[in-house]
Specification:
The protein is an all-alpha fold. It has helices spanning 2-15, 32-46, 51-112. The longest helix is centred in the last third of the chain and has 62 residues, at 51-112. 29% of the residues are buried.
């Protein structure tokens, strides 16, 4: 149980690492009203990444691998614990990858529209 709780805490910390709200641009000479509209449009494009699906696939594969490792090392109770820990870790990894992809789409979109993205 402690392992599952620790995995959940670590996973939540990983998920919080990257968002499209943290994009920094050079604002010199930028019409901020136009930028806000462009940002909204670019964020709309980024939703095509399907982060939720990546998290689900990561959780499923993590549960499978964790369950197999748990079964080998700890029998049936180890399989359940391993599957739980694997699902949490795999889901967090998939979600994090999805969020990073979303941020990259927004940054590329903004650069394509002439903005200097600083991060």
């Amino acid at each position: 149980m402690k392992n599952i709780l620790a995995a959940i805490i670590v996973s939540l910390a990983i998920i919080a690492c990257t968002t499209t709200d943290e994009i920094i641009i050079d604002q010199k000479g930028v019409n901020m009203n136009a930028y806000q509209q462009d940002l909204i449009e670019c964020q709309t494009y980024s939703k095509q990444v399907r982060t939720g699906e990546k998290a689900t696939k990561g959780a499923a594969s993590g549960a499978l691998v964790g369950g197999l490792i748990g079964a080998i090392t700890g029998g049936s109770s180890g399989a359940v614990t391993g599957a739980g820990v694997g699902a949490v870790g795999g889901g967090a990894k998939g979600a994090n990858q999805g969020q990073q992809s979303e941020a990259q789409v927004v940054k590329r979109c903004l650069r394509g529209r002439g903005y200097r993205v600083l991060n």
